[in-house]
């Protein structure tokens, strides 16, 4: 995850700085989260980790949201529940955050008066 995070971050920044080969939407295989033992390990071998049917989707959700934070545009998802939650969370983010920013006056920054 750390390596993927760094690579996606570098790709996004390079694209924004004008690198033509990287100035395109980024897709990522968040299904790779299922390769982690935390996602698939049986309850018999790791009883403290909880139920596998919860761990797998949660691991994929965390993977997708982490990569979305650094610029992922399209997450290729495996589990339908994970895809639903990622869609819901990102939908809330893009619907609610602009309302909060508008209420706080962040969009009127040009005419805002600075406090001393």
List keywords for this structure.
mainly alpha, single chain
Walk me through what this model shows.
It is a single chain. The protein has 116 residues and is mainly alpha-helical. It has a domain at 27-106. Helix content is 53%, strand content 3%. The protein has helices at residues 2-16, 37-40, 52-69, 80-104, and strands spanning 27-28, 74-75. A two-stranded parallel sheet has the order 1-2. Helix 3 (52-69) crosses helix 4. The longest helix has 25 residues, at 80-104. The model has no long low-confidence stretch (mean pLDDT 88).
- Strands in their spatial order, largest beta sheet: 1-2
Main beta sheet, described?
A: 2 strands, parallel
Give the overall pLDDT as a whole number: 88
* Order of helix and strand elements from N to C terminus: HEHHEH
CA-based gyration radius: 19 Å
Distance between the termini: 43 Å
Name the poorly predicted regions.
none
Helical segment count = 4
Helix content: 40-55%
Shape: extended
Strands, count = 2
């Amino acid at each position: 995850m750390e390596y993927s995070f760094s690579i996606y971050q570098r790709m996004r920044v390079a694209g924004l700085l004008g690198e033509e080969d990287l100035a395109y939407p980024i897709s990522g295989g968040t299904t790779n989260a299922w390769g982690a033992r935390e996602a698939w390990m049986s309850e018999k071998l790791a009883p403290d980790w909880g139920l596998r049917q919860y761990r797998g989707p949660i691991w994929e959700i965390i993977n997708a949201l982490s990569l979305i934070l650094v610029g992922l545009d399209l997450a290729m998802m495996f589990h339908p529940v994970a895809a639903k939650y990622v869609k819901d969370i990102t939908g809330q983010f893009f619907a609610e955050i602009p309302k909060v920013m508008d209420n706080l006056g962040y969009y009127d920054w040009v005419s805002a008066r600075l406090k001393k």
